[in-house]
Amino acid sequence: MRTRSLISKLEQFTELSAVEKQALEDSTGDIREFAAKEDIIEQGDSPDDLHLLVEGWASRYKILADGTRQIMAYLIPGDLCDVHVTLLERMDHSIGALSPCKVLFIPRHRLANLMRKHENVSRALWWSTLVDEAILREWLVNIGRRRADKRLGHLICEMLLRARAVGLTDDGTFEMPLTQEELADTMGMTPQHMNRCFQMLRAERLISTRGKLVTIHELEKLVSFSDFDPLYLHQEGNRVAVGRNPRAPDAA
Amino acid sequence: MRTRSLISKLEQFTELSAVEKQALEDSTGDIREFAAKEDIIEQGDSPDDLHLLVEGWASRYKILADGTRQIMAYLIPGDLCDVHVTLLERMDHSIGALSPCKVLFIPRHRLANLMRKHENVSRALWWSTLVDEAILREWLVNIGRRRADKRLGHLICEMLLRARAVGLTDDGTFEMPLTQEELADTMGMTPQHMNRCFQMLRAERLISTRGKLVTIHELEKLVSFSDFDPLYLHQEGNRVAVGRNPRAPDAA
DNA sequence: CGGCTCATTGACCAACGTCAATGCCGGTGG
DNA sequence: CCACCGGCATTGACGTTGGTCAATGAGCCG
Hints:
Two copies of one chain form a homodimer.
Chain A: H1 4-10, H2 18-26, E1 31-34, E2 39-41, E3 49-55, E4 58-63, E5 69-75, E6 94-97, E7 101-107, H3 108-117, H4 119-145, H5 148-165, E8 169-170, E9 173-175, H6 180-186, H7 191-203, E10 207-210, E11 213-216, H8 219-226, H9 238-241
Antiparallel strand pairs in A: 1-7, 2-6, 3-7, 4-5, 4-6, 8-9, 9-11, 10-11
Helix pairs in contact in A: 3-4, 5-7, 5-8, 6-7
The structure holds a DNA duplex (30 and 30 nucleotides).
């Protein structure tokens, strides 16, 4: 099942029948691999296929005139890169692999068929784009109104819940294949300051790291430290979910 | 024509036939007025009608636990407040009037009919939500990566172009019915600092203000000062548009 | 004339950026 | 096996942007 993680995510919104799942699976095309730092889609492209991230992490980003970068979204397995772009002639930003990635290509016409035949799948896909937008809004809040250390805490909470929804967590620990520089470019700061933030969170015993593995010792403490409210993720049973794992990790 | 500004905006994306325009107009319901600072939609609501802003400015915002506010979008005439919410059970943020507003209510079932019958209108409406999302991404870039004074300059450029698209500008001047505090809550700073930013832009002769009227003396200077690239607004003939008025202001 | 909201000012301070090293670690060629 | 290299993490000193606090003014309205 190459669409396992997508389905796992969509089922947070609505139950899908076996037929629907199969139809989704049957709509998929090739899988292509991308190396870390490679672009999956570049600004100016107008891709013919929908891109589904199956493995690895990627980012939506823009490069400014002065060469600085702003990352506007993280994509993890189960996330779609460009559900919509058909309507805008060209991408106004790029999507790049943050770690080695596997990307599933879904020809647009097959997607269109799928969505026409399966109302339920169609709604679930739209739901996922609405959640993406909600996440974007929350990032704006995060950058606009929270201090650097809380900002990092907030992001870590979010990524834990998102990773959990696609079965990529092991209790309070998950892999976050990002450099501190990438995180800095996400949260509007410098790598040096990002580093200081990590040290604060570690000193407060809110998180610890080993390589790219992050572990959150007591999610509730980090949640309240970071003023995190999972409502915006629109995950079913959200509030309950902060505390335990709502679904058994999928078998690999 | 109560949908004049919406149509004016949509026609940046595609020409609409007289029949389509009429169908859009016929789908509308009541108009309601809101006073400045009044909420049009509150967090937690799940509205039955689509809300189209016809007059005045409104904002999408969230209030944080510590009482601070983050504004995540400005809505001006022609903008839709909640094209989608049907799919998410409840609003994860509020929409409030910034100035006295007139809001046109469009019953969801009529909208659904309209979109079913008129593919072209449907596409135009989706296009407008995609543009909203693109704007949101650009705001993230703005807050994340630009210094306070450029941030303000960037926003002013954007609002000029958006206002122009719905016939609300008079050359380089337009009404921006916002307090400095609201602007500060938009761009992640304090009102005091926002005030300093205004003074910088005025000192550089990039803008001047009289009451709520803002005038941009030479758009090109402000554009380059603010590192503004109108691509993200996905307005037809964008690049040309920075400089002259692409359409004659609609007769009132 | 108060009383309100909003704009403006100035002194001071903290968060965060800048600059310039240094350390760490995994990978690679010899 | 080991020296070296390159990318990333970390550190410290110091500078700047923007926040805080506390007034003062300016315009509007009953």
